[in-house]
Amino acid sequence: MNASTYWLTNVLLEVAFEKEQDVVVGTQTALHHIQVKEGVIANIIAAGQLPDDGIPHVDAKGLLMLPSFKEMHIHIDKTYYGGPWKAVRPAASIFDRLAEEQVILKQQLPTVKERAAKMLDLLLGNGATHIRTHVNVDPIVETKNMELTLQVLGDYAGKLTAESVAFPQHGLLKSSSVERVKSAMRLGATHVGAVDPAVVDDNIEMSLATLMDIAVQFDAGIDLHLHERNQLGLYTMNKLADLTEEAGWQGRVTVSHAFGFAGPVTKAAEQLAERFAELGISISSTVPIGAVQMPIPMLREKGVLVELGNDSITDHWSPFGTGDMLEKANRMSELYGYADEYSLSRAITCITGGVTPLDNDGKQVWPVQGALADAVFVKASCSAEAVARRSERRAVMFMGQVVAGAF
């Protein structure tokens, strides 16, 4: 598909909800023809006879068109993916894992680009055309991982968009990495990161203040890894919210994992969620199962933007990643009981940056003229089925061009 202008024919689009006694029981769909021009949706018409305009046609064969996915938390610079199988070694604490990582980072440096590219291919094939990757910046590899990762992302610029987080995994303060992080920002990182200001950096206020200072200096977003639980985690997130408000950084801050919210919902957690919604602080989650369970339904009800990520595919932290954002939406739906048509259709917001074909009232709001032609084409009757059944992705489109699969 090399033409800059063409008709994409026989595309299945969601058009409305089906209701019985005001309860959504299904999703209505219809076939359409979509004109794509220079990476943008230029026209949408009901299926039937096409205009005799001489524009090339590409048959979508009745596949359901959904917004392409966003992988909002992953580490493509340190992975076993693309290499031989290796399980995780037992570790008693995060510090044991970091000690192990010091050795692994040196071993993996020669394969960073190769394995990062393989991870991007996996993500693309599963429907993601945007990723946010955290990239180690530390005393072991300095900014080498960032340099190599940015090169790979540059190679994929025609297939996806990307954000890169300068991530001091071994502690922003603990590993004396402030200047290293600044160097990574100068290289082109889009976000500044940190990890566990209390447990790792041992100074919540200084760690967060330094994080915000770097963000302001480089006019960059923030993405903070926070595994700290209970009151400690809530305290840290409230302090981050204070700094966000003081700096005017609304809508530019993400807390990854945010385990301070985990467990039974408390009034303090609800109040913090409301504050996050007001400040536009988003949460990136892997949808953990087991001992740590996030109150994702409460967060969404309070208006917090919750986005999902794999974190890893297979590395020294976890061997269980799939690289499949639809699987993440499926896991979230099963874990929290999103089994009905309406709830399943809303679950997709967590992997599309909030975009849905139908709004909450069932009005068609995507695709529309003028929107970027970024989409995934699925063998499913509706988005609810796609989430519940993890339907096959046949083709992935970025800026009007098929970048994975085929029609």
Automatic annotation (TrEMBL):
<feature type="domain" description="Amidohydrolase 3">
    <location>
        <begin position="58"/>
        <end position="140"/>
    </location>
</feature>
<protein>
    <submittedName>
        <fullName>Amidohydrolase family protein</fullName>
    </submittedName>
</protein>
<dbReference type="InterPro" id="IPR013108">
    <property type="entry name" value="Amidohydro_3"/>
</dbReference>
<feature type="domain" description="Amidohydrolase 3">
    <location>
        <begin position="177"/>
        <end position="403"/>
    </location>
</feature>
<dbReference type="InterPro" id="IPR032466">
    <property type="entry name" value="Metal_Hydrolase"/>
</dbReference>
<dbReference type="InterPro" id="IPR011059">
    <property type="entry name" value="Metal-dep_hydrolase_composite"/>
</dbReference>
<dbReference type="GO" id="GO:0016814">
    <property type="term" value="F:hydrolase activity, acting on carbon-nitrogen (but not peptide) bonds, in cyclic amidines"/>
</dbReference>
<dbReference type="Pfam" id="PF07969">
    <property type="entry name" value="Amidohydro_3"/>
</dbReference>
<dbReference type="InterPro" id="IPR052349">
    <property type="entry name" value="Metallo-hydrolase_Enzymes"/>
</dbReference>
